[in-house]
Request: fold
Amino acid sequence: MTHPLAGKWRIVEMELWDREFIDLIGPGYIAFDDEGSGDFAFGAVTGTLDCGYAKASIHFTWEGNDEMDEAAGDGWAELQDDGLISGEIGFQHGDESSFIAKRWTSSTAC
Reply:
């Protein structure tokens, strides 16, 4: 069975950063698979995810880079009634930002 959050999601809003920063290198996104992993990219930040799944939510830790410096943290994502996901991405000993994302389609990539 496929988890309801499995797939790629377009980050459309973040608490700490505007859309220009979110899409600095390319369209900001977060993606989850059914195998307990995933990845994300926004601004100059990239990360791979190690996920734990609940019925309509995912909690994760991540490792990656922030402007080419090693970075790590944790976060979560939860399916909302309107079909969007809301969540938070946190940096170890640093910023935490909420986010909203919608399911990735060819029209949401832009």
Remarks:
- The longest helix spans residues 19-22.
- Residues 77 and 87 are 4 Å apart (CA to CA).
